[in-house]
């Protein structure tokens, strides 16, 4: 989970989130290089005294500064597309969890595992345990096995919600009348916190998600 002074991404708990962080760093590095170059050029313009009265066009330089940025953009576009398709790849999930967004709580169904169904409400601040996290803990956690492929089906019963867990790289909208699918693979045990991230009404901030990742034989 995110704690104080954490301005970047959370530590990943899944291979896909790891790839997302790599891509973020890659794109940021390119961005820094562009910013430094353009910043330097703009700064040096202030000290430029050269003037050419007869300069009307420059075919070659126009060509270079049109094509060069296009090539740089390809270095972002191709890894981005790779990731985009990688995120939608489903490889034989061992558990399917259906999460349904309500105003303002989540309910879950393990449709292929004993048909377990339960609601998951945030624990109010006045009832929170001493070691609990305010606005982030729930009464009924989702328990999922680690090191196995998990499929998530997301929908909503009233308005649009969004099932979002930063550490797993998952962010899927729950839309009434639709069923969205995603998948992930948790590669370590622990608690992973998430929140609804679609402005869904007055208590939008108070419908967190908690995943308890456990070894398969404990599941
Ligand atoms: Cu549900 Cu915001």
UniProtKB/TrEMBL annotation:
Q: Name one GO molecular function term.
A: oxidoreductase activity
* GO biological process, any: ATP synthesis coupled electron transport
**What residue ranges are annotated as transmembrane?**
27-51, 63-87
| Cofactor: record remark | Binds a copper A center.
Q: Where is the Cytochrome oxidase subunit II transmembrane region profile domain?
A: 1-91
**GO cellular component assignments:** mitochondrial inner membrane
The coenzyme or cofactor needed here is: Cu cation
The membrane topology of this protein is: Multi-pass membrane protein
- Domain Cytochrome oxidase subunit II copper A binding residue range list: 92-219
Is Transferase one of the keywords?
no
A Pfam family: COX2
Q: Does the keyword Transmembrane helix apply?
A: yes
Q: InterPro entries of this UniProt entry?
A: CcO_II (IPR045187), CcO_II-like_C (IPR002429), CcO_II_C (IPR034210), Copper_CuA (IPR001505), Cupredoxin (IPR008972), Cyt_c_oxidase_su2 (IPR014222), Cyt_c_oxidase_su2_TM_dom (IPR011759), Cyt_c_oxidase_su2_TM_sf (IPR036257)
Localization, UniProt? Mitochondrion inner membrane
Q: Which NCBIfam families match?
A: CoxB
Q: What does the protein in this record do?
A: Component of the cytochrome c oxidase, the last enzyme in the mitochondrial electron transport chain which drives oxidative phosphorylation. The respiratory chain contains 3 multisubunit complexes succinate dehydrogenase (complex II, CII), ubiquinol-cytochrome c oxidoreductase (cytochrome b-c1 complex, complex III, CIII) and cytochrome c oxidase (complex IV, CIV), that cooperate to transfer electrons derived from NADH and succinate to molecular oxygen, creating an electrochemical gradient over the inner membrane that drives transmembrane transport and the ATP synthase.
Question: Subunit structure, briefly?
Answer: Component of the cytochrome c oxidase (complex IV, CIV), a multisubunit enzyme composed of a catalytic core of 3 subunits and several supernumerary subunits. The complex exists as a monomer or a dimer and forms supercomplexes (SCs) in the inner mitochondrial membrane with ubiquinol-cytochrome c oxidoreductase (cytochrome b-c1 complex, complex III, CIII).
What's the protein name? Cytochrome c oxidase subunit 2
Instruction: Recall the taxonomic lineage recorded for the source organism.
Output: Eukaryota, Metazoa, Ecdysozoa, Arthropoda, Hexapoda
